[in-house]
Design a protein that fits this description.
2 domains; 12 helices; Lysozyme
C-alpha cells in the first residue's frame, strides 16, 4: 500500500486503509533489510538529539539497529505464519509498535501494560499463555526481590472484583441523587437516611479506588525492581531472566500476539486497518456498530486516547511505508 491519501478511485478499487486478501508470501531478506533501514531513517529524522519517551535516555545512547533488526525478523515470521484472511502489512505492525512503545522492550505503563506491544496482564496470560510477573510460584522466592509486592497483581484483581460486587449490591443506594434530594426538600420530606447511604457508598468506592491504584503501583515497582536487579535493565544481557520472569518484555510472543490480534480484527472488520488498530487499543467489541451500512467495516470508538493512538500510527505508517516502498 502506498499511503493514506485518498485519490479518485475506479469502481473496482478499494481505499488504501483496507487490507488486501492475504496472498503475500512474506518479506525477502532484502525486503527485511530495507524495512529495517526505513524505520531507522524515520527514527533518525525525527528523534535525533532528543531524550526519548519510554526510554528516558538520549536517542544516541540507544542501539536501535539491533532492536529494529530483531523486531522486523519476528514481525515477518509472525505474518508468514499467520492464518489471517487479510494481509497484515509488516510496515503497519512496525508503525503500531512504534506508537505503543517506541520499540522500548522495557516500557511499562501505570495501567500495567508492558513490553514493545504493551500487552495487559490478562491478555498475555489468558489469551496467549505467557509467563508474566507474579504468575509463577518461583516469583515469590529468592533470587527475586521485593517479594512483599509479588502478590500485587492478584491484590489488584481481587480489589477490582470486590469493587464490582459492592457496586452491584449497593446499586439501590445510589438512587438518591441531587435532583431527588432537592425535590424532597421542596416537599418538606426527610431524606437524611438515604443521603447517608449515598455518602457511605461513595466513601467505600473511593477507598476501593485508592487500593486498586496502590496495587497497580506496587506491581510496576515489583517488575521494575527485578528488571534492574536481575535483568540488568537490558533484555540482551540476560534474556533467560525475562523468559522466566515476564515474557511481555521479549520479542517473539508479544509480536506474535499483536499480529494475531490484528489479523483477527481484520477478519472481523473485513480488512479495515483503522478499525483493527483501534480494536487493539480499545477492544474489538468497541469497533462494532449496528448501523447496517457500517457494520461490515466497523467504526472508530469515540475515545480521545484511541484517536491520538490512530493519529500516531497513520503518521508512522506514512513515514515508514514511503521509505520502504521507494
Amino acid at each position: 500500500m502506498a499511503s493514506f491519501a485518498l485519490p479518485i478511485q475506479s469502481s473496482q478499487a478499494s481505499l488504501d486503509f483496507l487490507a488486501d486478501i492475504k496472498t503475500s508470501p512474506g518479506l525477502t531478506a532484502a525486503e527485511r533489510f530495507k524495512l529495517t533501514q526505513a524505520v531507522l531513517d524515520v527514527l533518525e529524522t525525527y528523534y535525533s538529539g532528543m531524550t526519548l519517551q519510554f526510554w528516558n535516555k538520549p536517542f544516541e545512547e540507544i542501539d536501535f539497529e539491533k532492536r529494529i533488526t530483531n523486531i522486523v525478523y519476528w514481525v515477518d515470521l509472525a505474518v508468514k505464519q499467520s492464518d489471517a484472511a487479510y494481509h497484515v502489512d509488516p510496515a503497519w505492525v512496525l508503525s503500531q509498535i512504534m506508537a505503543e512503545s517506541l520499540f522500548c522492550e522495557l516500557a511499562i505503563s501505570k495501567s500495567m501494560a508492558a513490553g514493545i506491544c504493551q500487552l495487559m496482564p490478562n491478555t498475555a496470560t489468558r489469551d496467549f499463555k505467557m509467563v508474566i510477573a507474579g504468575s509463577q510460584k518461583t516469583h515469590y522466592m529468592p533470587p527475586y526481590i521485593k517479594l512483599e509486592l509479588a502478590n500485587s497483581l492478584s491484590e489488584y484483581q481481587r480489589r477490582l472484583r470486590e469493587k464490582g460486587g459492592y457496586r452491584k449490591s449497593t446499586k439501590g443506594d445510589a438512587a438518591f441523587n441531587l435532583n431527588k434530594a432537592l425535590k424532597w426538600l421542596a416537599e418538606g420530606k426527610e431524606g437524611r437516611n438515604f443521603a447517608t447511604l449515598q455518602l457511605n457508598r461513595g466513601e467505600v468506592l473511593r477507598d476501593y479506588d485508592q487500593k486498586i491504584k496502590q496495587a497497580k503501583k506496587d506491581y510496576v515497582t515489583f517488575i521494575n525492581a527485578n528488571i534492574e536487579a536481575l535483568g540488568e535493565g537490558d533484555i540482551f544481557k540476560n534474556p533467560s531472566f525475562f523468559v522466566a520472569f515476564d515474557e511481555r518484555f521479549t520479542y517473539k510472543k508479544p509480536i506474535f500476539a499483536m499480529v494475531h490480534m490484528l489479523a483477527n480484527a481484520l477478519r472481523v472488520r473485513n480488512g479495515n486497518m483503522l478499525a483493527a488498530a483501534a480494536a487493539y487499543n480499545a477492544g474489538l467489541s468497541r469497533t462494532w456498530t449496528d448501523e447496517i451500512l457500517y457494520t461490515k467495516y466497523g467504526q472508530l470508538p469515540n475515545y480521545s486516547e484511541t484517536n491520538r493512538y490512530l493519529s500516531r500510527i497513520i503518521a508512522n505508517y506514512e513515514e515508514i511505508s514511503r521509505r520502504f516502498r521507494a
